[in-house]
Structure formats: structure tokens, C-alpha cells
């Protein structure tokens, strides 16, 4: 299958398909005319004498230095090689594929001035599975994600390193094995490849997709915890949430109602329950998780716009003028990444309190200590709860906004930067932590519901528990737990519990 991208109209759903899949990706061929027109305009300027930034001048602080027409190709090659200054571990291949697709979309707007040859090479690399080795660190999120994008561009030139068919190779060898030919960059093409927010945006999108899957799964595990704790579904009444009006809250409450519909557990004790109200971690799930849904959706709208944007510099405008601006500044992406981080932190925080409630016999309404069938002899899920607390605390530390930081770079030419790239990159670690927290809640919620036998939960949650038990068996007595936690986290990351619920119950990322 080939995903065809129409720049300006690429949706979050398509971007998630690119991130999670391995389909070939190409631009709509209707983009070709605008791309070629802009490339011709750049070639015209390069052949002339008037200095235009990035075409026949130096870069950044060196923009006042005029470059001879004969040296424009060398200028672009030198730009890429000198900017390959990334450090750290290679970015995940899924993120790199998304970076390349985003660069295609940006070039496809017809404002960058590159030849179709570059577009076709990126499409070929995505189709054949050539994945540039892009070190994770080195961008401050302004003047483009210069260092990481330079590593991508280097492979296109036959330099740098790439992964192909499971091997780490030189860029040239990876292209050759895939049957692709390196390009020699023409005027402005190197700058067009490395200016732009595609690395920051790809990382933020990856964080968003992972975070939203966790958020939806947290509603499932939250429903399990509610039933395990014999919590009341009354606070999920639709009128309560309609009266407030926030869409995320309305959606979260609707999901919780649907998930708990038909449970015997609550009905069994409704007349004799002395509790007037449940703790906030049960009662206020729609308010907290719903607000997080709203925040993630807002970030998603920002990132969808950014994914469709032309963000290099200078740009060929609609009247054929070439104007230097600042679309490479990733402030919108930095803000979106910070919003996602806050939501991830809060989803984990309230889930962790539900875990703590279930393992505490003083709060869990009759469940045995630490959900062990023989507490004392067995510690049950005691330390699983401690692990969830550790992960929650780590996420709190990482949730500090990156966008409020800045430092001057490039001899003070680039004197305010967004820090979007590492602000987005931290979302991968944070969502790993969150998947583990939600996985631990699944362990506790499923165990707690099973301990209510012979009473049974709703049909929806019975399906969830059955799917979960294929991966992680019921805890009868103490055993080596690390494997259970990893399988539970994988079930969250892979959407196993969401799939068990079925369509139409849980919120969607777009509304």
C-alpha cells in the first residue's frame, strides 16, 4: 500500500498510520508543478548577481558574505556536512520515517525551491526502507532542527550513515543496496532540507499518538478500578458533565458509563453501602482524564497544522518573490509538547492513586491487602504499586515546560530558541512511564474484579480481562513480577485493551 500525501490536508490519522506502519509514502503528483516552478525561480536567482539569503550567501551570522555562482553546489554540500553535529543514540526508525514524510509534505507546498529529484529520493528511501541514522540530540528548535535534519540530508548525498535491511551502513552503501542514487545538491536545496521543524514535530506527534493511546486505555483501567473498588457510577451521569460543557469530560464520562454498564458488582451492594462519596481518583475521572483529552486534542490540532506547513527559509512566495522569514522557529511545537507532557503527567498521577487505593485494605472496601489471596505469606502487588509511584514521580520531574527556556546561539544571530526538539523527545520516555503505570493499574484492576467473584463485571470489562489474561495470568501467589509488568505495559502500548473494548466506546483523537 502507498500513502499519498496532499500537503495542506494531511490528517492526524494519516500521520499516525505513517508512524505506526511501514507503507510507502509519496506526494500527490499534483504538487509537482508548484515544486518545479519554485525550483526554477531559485535557479534563476542563483545564476544572477543579486544576493539572496541562503542561495548565494553564507548562512546565519555569515549571511553578509556573497558566494560566487560557481560555488553554490559546494556551499550546499558544506552546509550539510558542517551541520552534522548530532550526538546521542539514534532516533527510532518509526520517528525517522515520520520526519522524512513531514519533510515531503513541507517540500510539497511548493515554496522551498528544491528539484523534484530530491522529492523522489525521499519517496524512494521511504519505499525501500532506507532509514538515515539521526542522533537524538543537537537541536534547539529554531533556525530549523539543523543538526538532526543534516544527518538525514547527508544520507541523501551519499554521506553519513543509515540503516537498511537491519544493517547499519554508510549512507552511500545503504542507497546503493536499495537501488537509489545520491543527489548533488543545487542552490538552496541543503538549506531547504535542514531548515524546518520536522524533527521536533515528528517527536511531538509520536508522543501525542502514544499519549492518546494511554489516555484511552486509562479510561478502561479506570473503569476496572472503579468496579474493583465497588465505586459508584453515579458521578458519571451525563447531565453532570453536560452542565459543565467540556467535551473531553463529556466523552470520558460517556466511556466510563459504557464500560461499566451491566456490572453486577455495584448493584450487589448499592443498598448497604455506607460511603456517600468515592475518593476523587474514582469520582473525578471524567474531570481529570477529560481535561487531559482536551489538552491532547488541542496539541493535536497544533501539530496537524505544523505537519502541513512550509517551515524552511527563505520561501518562494505566491508572487515568485523569495523572502526570508522565521517559520523555522518551533515555538508552536514546543508549546504543544509541553501540553502533552502535562497531560501525560496527570493521567499517570490519578491512575497511580487508583492503584494505591486498590492495594490498601483500609480504602479498597473489602479487598485483601495488596490484592493477594494470602496476604502476609505473599506480598502480592505491593511493590508494583511502589514502582508506579516511582514512575509517576519521574514524570512529574520531566513535565517542567521546555518552552520557557532559551539560550542565544550562532553568535547571537539566533538569540531566542524554542527548545522544541528535546521538549518533544522527552515525551517518549514519559509515555513509556505512563504505559507502565496504566499496565500496573490493569494488573490491579483485573485482580480486584476477579476477587469480587462470584459477582461479575460488565460484558465490556469481561472482554478486557479475558484479553489481558491471555498475556498475564491471575496472581495466585507471589512470583517473579518484572515479566508481568512488561507484558502489561506492552498491552497498553499495543492497544490490546482498547481492541478488547471494541469500536465506538472510547474517545477519538479528533472530534
Automatic annotation (TrEMBL):
Cross-link 5-imidazolinone (Ala-Gly): where in chain: 142-144
Matching SUPFAM superfamilies: L-aspartase-like
Catalytic activity: L-histidine = trans-urocanate + NH4(+)
EC number: 4.3.1.3
PTM statement from Swiss-Prot or TrEMBL: Contains an active site 4-methylidene-imidazol-5-one (MIO), which is formed autocatalytically by cyclization and dehydration of residues Ala-Ser-Gly.
GO molecular function, one term: histidine ammonia-lyase activity
InterPro entries: Aromatic_Lyase (IPR001106), Fumarase/histidase_N (IPR024083), HutH (IPR005921), L-Aspartase-like (IPR008948), Phe/His_NH3-lyase_AS (IPR022313)
Listed GO CC annotations: cytoplasm
Family to which this protein belongs: Belongs to the PAL/histidase family.
NCBIfam families given in the database record: hutH, PRK09367.1
HAMAP family: His_ammonia_lyase (MF_00229)
Protein's name in the database: Histidine ammonia-lyase
Native species: Martelella endophytica
Gene behind the chain: hutH
Amino acid at each position: 500500500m502507498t500513502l499519498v500525501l496532499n500537503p495542506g490536508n494531511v490528517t492526524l490519522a494519516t500521520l499516525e498510520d505513517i508512524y505506526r506502519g511501514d507503507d510507502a509514502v509519496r506526494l500527490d503528483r499534483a504538487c509537482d508543478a508548484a515544486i518545479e516552478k519554485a525550483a526554477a525561480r531559485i535557479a534563476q536567482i542563483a545564476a544572477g548577481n543579486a544576493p539572496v539569503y541562503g542561495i548565494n550567501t553564507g548562512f546565519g551570522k555569515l549571511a553578509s558574505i556573497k558566494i560566487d555562482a560557481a560555488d553554490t553546489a559546494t556551499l550546499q554540500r558544506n552546509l550539510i556536512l558542517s551541520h552534522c553535529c548530532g550526538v546521542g543514540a539514534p532516533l527510532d526508525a518509526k520517528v525517522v520515517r515520520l520526519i522524512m514524510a513531514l519533510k515531503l509534505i513541507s517540500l510539497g507546498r511548493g515554496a522551498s525551491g528544491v528539484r523534484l529529484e530530491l522529492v523522489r529520493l525521499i519517496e524512494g528511501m521511504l519505499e525501500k526502507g532506507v532509514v538515515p541514522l539521526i542522533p537524538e540530540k543537537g537541536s534547539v528548535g529554531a533556525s530549523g532542527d539543523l543538526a538532526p535534519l543534516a544527518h538525514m540530508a547527508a544520507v541523501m548525498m551519499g554521506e553519513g550513515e543509515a540503516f537498511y535491511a537491519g544493517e547499519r551502513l554508510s549512507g552511500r552503501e545503504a542507497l546503493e543496496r536499495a537501488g537509489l542514487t545520491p543527489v548533488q545538491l543545487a542552490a538552496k536545496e541543503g538549506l531547504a532540507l535542514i531548515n524546518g521543524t520536522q524533527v521536533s514535530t515528528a517527536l511531538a506527534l509520536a508522543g501525542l499518538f502514544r499519549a492518546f493511546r494511554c489516555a484511552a486505555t486509562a479510561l478502561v483501567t479506570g473503569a476496572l478500578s472503579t468496579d474493583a473498588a465497588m465505586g459508584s457510577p453515579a458521578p458519571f451521569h451525563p447531565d453532570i458533565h453536560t452542565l459543565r460543557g467540556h467535551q473531553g469530560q463529556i466523552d470520558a464520562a460517556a466511556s466510563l458509563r459504557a464500560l461499566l454498564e451491566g456490572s453486577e458488582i455495584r448493584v450487589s451492594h448499592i443498598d448497604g453501602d455506607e460511603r456517600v462519596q468515592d475518593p476523587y481518583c474514582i469520582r473525578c475521572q471524567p474531570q481529570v482524564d477529560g481535561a487531559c483529552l482536551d489538552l491532547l486534542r488541542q496539541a493535536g490540532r497544533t501539530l496537524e497544522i505544523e505537519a502541513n506547513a512550509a517551515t524552511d527559509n527563505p520561501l518562494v512566495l505566491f508572487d515568485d518573490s523569495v523572502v526570508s522569514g522565521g517559520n523555522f522557529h518551533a515555538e508552536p511545537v514546543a508549546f504543544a509538547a509541553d501540553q502533552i507532557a502535562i497531560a501525560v503527567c496527570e493521567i499517570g498521577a490519578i491512575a497511580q492513586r487508583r492503584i494505591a487505593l486498590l492495594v490498601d485494605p483500609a480504602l479498597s472496601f473489602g479487598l485483601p491487602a495488596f490484592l493477594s489471596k494470602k496476604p502476609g505469606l505473599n506480598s502480592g502487588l505491593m511493590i508494583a504499586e511502589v514502582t508506579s509511584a516511582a514512575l509517576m514521580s519521574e514524570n512529574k520531574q520531566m513535565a517542567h515546560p521546555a518552552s520557557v527556556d532559551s539560550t542565544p546561539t550562532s553568535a547571537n544571530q539566533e538569540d531566542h530558541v524554542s527548545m522544541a526538539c528535546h521538549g518533544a523527545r522527552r515525551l517518549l520516555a514519559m509515555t513509556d512511564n505512563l504505559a507502565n503505570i496504566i499496565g500496573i493499574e490493569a494488573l490491579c484492576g483485573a485482580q480486584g474484579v476477579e476477587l469480587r467473584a462470584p459477582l461479575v463485571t460488565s460484558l465490556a470489562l469481561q472482554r478486557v480481562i479475558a484479553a489481558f489474561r491471555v498475556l498475564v495470568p491471575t496472581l495466585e501467589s507471589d512470583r517473579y513480577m518484572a515479566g508481568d509488568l512488561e507484558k502489561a505495559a506492552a498491552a497498553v502500548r499495543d492497544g490490546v485493551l482498547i481492541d478488547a473494548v471494541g469500536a465506538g466506546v472510547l474517545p477519538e483523537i479528533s472530534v
